[in-house]
Amino acid sequence: MKLLTTASIHFADRLTALVKERGPICAGIDPRLKQMPQPQDEVAAAKWGEEVAALLADKVACLKPQIAFFQDDWTAVDQIGIASMNNGGALVIGDCKRGDIGSTAKAYADRILGFSSTVNAVTLNPYLGKDSLQPFIDVADQTHKGVFILVKTSNPGSADIQDLKTDTMGMWRVWEHVAKMVDDLGAPYIGKKGRSLVGAVVGLTNTVEEVKRCRELMPNA
């Protein structure tokens, strides 16, 4: 089933316009059950997420429900997307950091980014390489949606792998190779406003130099 409300505008063009209009805020929706009033259950969490989406959908550029806090229930996340479409149209980023290969990656991509889903973009883990990411990019290209690939994350343990130096390309760190991969993957999918539907996750707890280096390696992300 194809949603009639699915926009036919390039994802990055839509995002750029919303950021220009509303600012760069992406509001996380993470219903931690122990911090919620009674009843503390999955149904209440889903309803809370939907109501938050309705409240913020005309005020921010993006909403980012973390799937773990919805018991991995994409139906609940779809309700957030519907609430957003009905109340202002903030883009919905499904934060699940998926990463798999072959038919499994394609199945994830179809469910999360297909025409029948109200999610506009998804976060992806690049550890399995390009062939784990391309199925998501292919579906996103067809449905005018987007992906955000983990490049330089904010958690302290990210340095365990991301900051390791390689013996290629002038001793680049692992995250720099990932950034270059993001740029390569996104090159064929650049919108009219100069940004690709392939984006990157970069924690702003990183240094100014690291963030600047990310932009240097990913000018269109």
Task: Give a verbal description of the structure.
The chain is an alpha/beta fold and 221 residues long. The protein has a domain at 11-156: TIM Barrel. It is built from eight helices and six strands, in the order H-E-H-E-H-E-H-E-H-E-H-H-E-H. The chain has helices spanning 11-22, 42-56, 74-86, 102-113, 130-143, 159-162, 174-186, 208-217; strands spanning 26-29, 62-65, 91-98, 121-124, 146-152, 198-202. The protein has a six-stranded parallel sheet. Helix 5 (130-143) links the parallel strand 4 and strand 5 (146-152). Helix 2 (42-56) packs parallel to helix 3 (74-86) and helix 4 (102-113) runs parallel beside helix 5 (130-143). The longest helix has 15 residues, at 42-56. It is globular and about 55 Å long. The two termini are 30 Å apart. Residues 1-6 have low confidence and may be disordered.
- Content of β-strand: 5-15%
Number of strands: 6
The H-level CATH homologous superfamily of one domain, spelled out, is: Aldolase class I
Tell me the major beta sheet. 6 strands, parallel
In CATH, the topology of one domain is named: TIM Barrel
For the record, the CATH architecture of one domain stands as: Alpha-Beta Barrel
User: Any idea what the shape is?
Assistant: globular
Mean pLDDT: 93
What is the percent of helical residues? 40-55%
One letter per element, helices H and strands E, the order comes to HEHEHEHEHEHHEH
